[in-house]
Design goal:
The protein is about 20% helix and about 40% strand. It is of the alpha+beta class and about 450 residues long.
Length: about 450
């Protein structure tokens, strides 16, 4: 992506000069009328701040060097919060997201008719080794690492890290409380409580349903971590059993983390929510008519998307697997006043040819995982184009390739990667992300 920073700086200079001229003309007019005025040619700070709020993050970091007045304003918590709000309003069609591996972190943008994603390396500090993504919120990224013994599959600890790759600030080694046994099946989410201006992490281990690894079975327990307080707080567990690991997602419109869970005393699933402000649970909405598991929740442009994929295969000559069909369905949760309704965005989109193309492309790679059908399980959408006529789909949670789907005719095309290092062949994780000035130190002060 071309660097547009000089345009922002040029526009800022033009606007400031224009306002200074207006200010000087007003001053001269007052002096003509016999009114004494003391004008330095400097804009009021409120007006300068209003202009600065409309500039993207990276140019702002450079503009901090212009003068002490701008540096102090750009660093102030009030300005940072206002800047986030302005960008959510004026950049509602943001197409940015991040890709990361255990050693590298990149940002990229998806544009209409793109055939290539240009990656830009972020941060001096790489992603901590063996960490996986939990979520992103207001420019902050949350990662998780599970320390384990591979022979016994015993989990020793779960560690969390929060960072902002733009401000290069990191908060490491947040240890999840251990109430006797860690579980492979747990729920975790990261979000923002706007009422208390605090970033929080939710963690919950399951009910004692036989999935706990360790000595004995413990009842379900849940905690909320506050970055502002730098401490964990015990809360009531969710009102349902957890039969798989869920990474909870948040939307831009409220303080709620969402996940799919089983309704108590029924065999049906629905979307549950955990309110980060009140620290209470509530049932959000039933799922659409989904006949096949699995499904995943994704947040794109502040809206919840439900993704369902179906893989059909047959064993041919071992260890080869013949791919019969791979289809994807996507629903979007739309708000109609006080009502919410699932609207189907993609209906039985076939990914078979795209995956077969990747399998053929990777046939000679050293990494055997890139040659397996299983390595392309759970494809997910990662970004819309600006006009929402196209959607970018990563083939697998550990992305090894992208395809673009035209939402009008359902046609697919491959999207290449430009700028990744050699570890791309092992797969990357991705998350929606927009840059911000939020620093961990300011959010935890």
């Amino acid at each position: 992506m071309a660097d547009k920073s000089p345009d922002y700086v040029g526009c800022l200079s033009m606007y400031c000069n224009l306002f200074r001229k207006i200010l000087l003309l007003k001053t001269k007019q007052k002096e003509k009328n016999g009114v004494t005025s003391y004008c330095t040619g400097r804009l009021p700070l409120e007006l300068e701040s209003n202009i600065l709020e409309r500039i993207s993050v990276e140019p702002l970091l450079r503009l901090k060097c212009v003068c002490k007045r701008w540096r102090d304003e750009i660093k102030s918590p009030c300005f940072i919060k206002s800047h986030i709000g302005q960008f959510q309003i004026h950049n509602a069609n943001s197409t940015s997201f991040i890709l990361f591996s255990p050693s590298h972190l990149y940002s990229t943008n998806f544009h209409k008719n793109s055939t290539t994603l240009k990656l830009k390396k972020l941060g001096r500090n790489s992603v901590p080794s063996d960490f996986t993504g939990v979520g992103s919120c207001n420019g902050l990224l949350c990662f998780r690492k599970i320390d384990r013994d591979y022979p016994e599959r015993m989990i020793h600890s779960i560690r969390l890290s929060v960072c902002n790759p733009i401000t290069d600030t990191t908060f490491n080694n947040v240890i999840v409380p251990n109430h006797g046994n860690y579980s492979w099946h747990h729920m975790i989410g990261f979000g923002y409580d706007c009422m208390s201006d605090d970033y929080k992490i939710f963690y919950s281990s399951p009910h004692g349903d036989g999935h706990v690894i360790g000595k004995g079975i413990e009842p379900a327990k849940s905690w909320v971590y506050s970055l502002k307080r730098n401490s964990w707080k015990s809360v009531q567990p969710p009102p349902h059993r957890c039969n798989k690991s869920w990474t909870m997602v948040t939307s831009n419109s409220n303080n709620v983390l969402y996940w799919v869970g089983g309704k108590p005393n029924t065999n049906k699933n629905c979307i549950f929510g955990f309110d980060l402000e009140t620290e209470e649970y509530h049932e959000v909405i039933p799922l659409p008519d989904i006949r096949m598991y699995p499904y995943e929740l994704v947040n794109l442009k502040g809206c919840l998307h439900l993704v369902n994929c179906r893989l059909n295969f047959a064993f041919a000559d071992e260890p080869e697997i013949k791919l019969l069909e791979y289809t994807m369905n996507i629903w979007v949760l739309k708000n109609y006043g006080s009502n919410r309704e699932w609207v189907k965005l993609i209906d039985r989109l076939s990914l078979k040819q795209a995956i077969e193309t990747e399998l053929e492309h990777n046939r000679n790679l050293e990494n055997p995982q890139s040659r397996s059908v299983y390595s392309y399980c759970h494809p997910l959408p990662y970004a819309y184009s600006e006009d929402e006529s196209e959607i970018l789909i990563g083939l697998s949670k550990h992305i090894k390739a992208f395809v673009c789907c035209d939402l009008h005719n359902g046609k697919l095309k491959r999207v290449d990667i430009n700028g990744a290092l050699n570890d791309w062949k092992y797969g990357y994780e991705g998350m929606p992300w927009t840059a911000s000035l939020v620093s961990i130190s300011s959010s935890t002060s």
